[in-house]
Amino acid sequence: MKQKGIFTFIAALVLCFMCVPAGAIMLEVSVKGPVATISPGKNTLTIENPLQYGCSYPATGVPVCSYIPINKSTLTGTVPDAAAFTVFNIGDQVVATSIGGPGDTWITLAKLFGSRPNEELVTNIVGDIGTIPTPFIGNYTLDATTVPDCSACSGTTCTALSATVKVESEGNEVLERTLIRGESLSYSGRNDGSSVYVKFVKGQALSTTCPGKTGMTGPQAISVYIVKVVPPFSSAQTNIRTATTTRPDEELTPLPLTASTSAAVPTTTKAGMLPLAAIGAIGFAGIILAKKRR
């Protein structure tokens, strides 16, 4: 019985690594809180009273994901791009993602719109659009696939030649465009005052997508985008609504915003889903082991 439990744990770990792309081994940590300080001279932004995003895995039912307090009063990290200093202001509610642990280096900063936690949605992003678990406002989704320059690789990553960005509106693809560094796209095809702007600043792609490259482990590919979503007219009314209960459609669930790497065969990484799948596999194994020991 004990050997069977160990086998199950190993199988879950294998599943965990199968869920993560080759090369993507660095833990991504997302936190939420108000901006405390902005320091262009130091290239940093500080969040106070941060809450960390995580999921619990009950023995039965689905995982429960939320932001919970951590033992840090502030977290400071360098910003992904200097554009952050024109987007974020002191007091703004943000979600920030870093690699390896909370703070130090923000790979993504996202501005939130909404007065209640279950109504908070993203309006602006500076960084990698695939690393934020909170959805965009206006029921928009972004999908980005980077193409590597196979002559400019180091370890697990290559410089990205371009990024193919897709815009989805209410579940339907409405725009696709390939952007080189510095190029942007805009979409305003809905009759509700909303719009989407995306600029590809710079990026990386996994070296394993290049011909002749063998599989290896190392840091995942990270890209930088500047995104601005103008909310629909109705969003202002939703934000001031005084309901005392939470509708089922208001429950916070991670929306798959993607940023991925590609070459001859493009691959796409769904934001939030791969880390959660990995954690889920380990959590599942832990539950089984606990039962075996009883």
Brief overview:
With 294 residues, this protein is of the alpha+beta class. The chain is built from 4 helices and 16 strands. 16% of the residues lie in helices and 41% in strands.
Order of helices and strands: HEEEEEHEEEEEEEEEEHEH
- Compute the number of helices: 4
- How much of the polypeptide forms β-strand, as a percent range? 35-45%
Which term fits the overall shape? globular
Structural class: alpha+beta
Helical residue percent band: 10-25%
Query: Can you give the mean pLDDT?
Result: 78
Total beta strand runs? 16
* Distance N to C terminus: 11 Å
The neighbouring-strand order within the major sheet is 1-2-5-7-6
Describe the largest sheet: 5 strands, mixed, barrel
Spans of at least 5 consecutive residues whose pLDDT stays below 50 are 1-23, 240-294
Radius of gyration: 20 Å
Can you put this structure into words, describing what you see?
The protein has helices at residues 2-18, 84-87, 234-239, 273-293; strands spanning 28-39, 44-48, 51-56, 64-69, 74-78, 93-99, 104-113, 121-127, 140-154, 157-169, 172-180, 184-187, 195-202, 204-206, 224-230, 258-261. With 294 residues, the chain is α+β, with helices and mostly antiparallel strands. Strand 7 and strand 8 (121-127) form a beta hairpin.
Give a topology summary:
Layout: H1 2-18, E1 28-39, E2 44-48, E3 51-56, E4 64-69, E5 74-78, H2 84-87, E6 93-99, E7 104-113, E8 121-127, E9 140-154, E10 157-169, E11 172-180, E12 184-187, E13 195-202, E14 204-206, E15 224-230, H3 234-239, E16 258-261, H4 273-293
Parallel strand pairs: 5-7, 9-16
Antiparallel strand pairs: 1-2, 1-3, 1-6, 2-5, 3-4, 6-7, 7-8, 8-15, 9-10, 10-11, 10-14, 12-13, 13-15
Helix pairs in contact: 1-4
